[in-house]
Amino acid sequence: xxxxxxxxxxxxxxxxxxxxxxxxxxxxxxxxxxxxxxxxxxxxxxxxxxxxxxxxxxxxxxxxxxxxxxxxxxxxxxxxxxxxxxxxxxxxxxxxxxxxxxxxxxxxxxxxxxxxxxxxxxxxxxxxxxxxxxxxxxxxxxxxxxxxxxxxxxxxxxxxxxxxxxxxxxxxxxxxxxxxxxxxxxxxxxxxxxxxxxxxxxxxxxxxxxxxxxxxxxxxxxxxxxxxxxxxxxxxxxxxxxxxxxxxxxxxxxxxxxxxxxxxxxxxxxxxxxxxxxxxxxxxxxxxxxxxxxxxxxxxxxxxxxxxxxxxxxxxxxxxxxxxxxxxxxxxxxxxxxxxxx
Length: 342
Description:
alpha+beta; elongated; two-stranded antiparallel ribbon; 14 strands
C-alpha cells in the first residue's frame, strides 16, 4: 500500500471519529437540556392566599409545569370565549338580515299576488271583449286549440282552477292557464288582422276618421234637432260641429276621394265637398283656408284646409256632413272616436 493511500485512510478514520464525537456531544447536550427543563418544570412552588380578615391562610403546593399548564388553559379558554362570542354576534346579525330579507320577500310575494289578481281581471275583460269581437266578425271561437285542449275563448277552466288551487302553486297554475289561453287567442286575433288587412281599402274609402285634429277637440253641436245658434229657433242640424276653440287647426279628409267643390256660401262660408266610393260625399264648412283644389285626388287623412269661422258662424269650428247619395246621415255612425259634447 502506498504512502498516499495510508494518509487517506488515516484522514477518513479521524473524520469518522470526529463526527461520532460531535454527534455524541450534541446528543449529550440535548439530553442535558431536557433534563434541566424537566427539573425546572418539576420545581415545587407554594402558593399562599392571605385574606385581609383574620381567616386562615390558604396555601397549596404545585410545580412549574402545572402552573404553566393552568395559565395556558386559562388564556385559551379566555380567547375561545371571545372568539365564539364574536361568531355568535355575527351569526345573529346574519339571522337578522335573513329575517329582514324574508319579510321583504313576503311583501313582494303579496304584491305579486295582487298584480296576479289584477292580471286575471284584465284577462277576463279581454276574454269578453274578444268574444264579442269574434261574434261580430263571424269567426268561430272554438276553432283555436290550446295545449290542454281547452276552449281558447273561454276562461272558465282558468277561474275554476283559481278557486280550487291554494298556496304559491295557485299563482303558478294561474299563470300557466293564462299563458295557454293567450297562446290560443293568437289564432283568432290573426284572423281578425287578416280580415282587417283585406278590408283596409274599404276603411279608407268610407268616412271613418275624425276630420279635425287639435287640442280640446269636442262636439259643439250634434246631428239632428237643435236650436239655431244665431236665429234661436229649432231646426234640423245636418251635420256635426267640431271645435277646438281656435282657428287654423288642420282639417283632414275623412276618406279617400276626389274634390268636387271648393267654394263659398253665405251660410257655410268656405267649404269643400269630397266624393268617395260607395256613394259617400262629405262636406267641410266654415273653413279658414283651402289646401286643395277642385278635381284633386286626396287620400284619407290628407290636410284639405284649416278650421275657421267663415259664413254664418258664432266662433271657429268645423261643420262636417256625411251624405249617402241624396240622403244626409249622422256622421257619428262613421267617426271611430268618442267625443264629449260641450
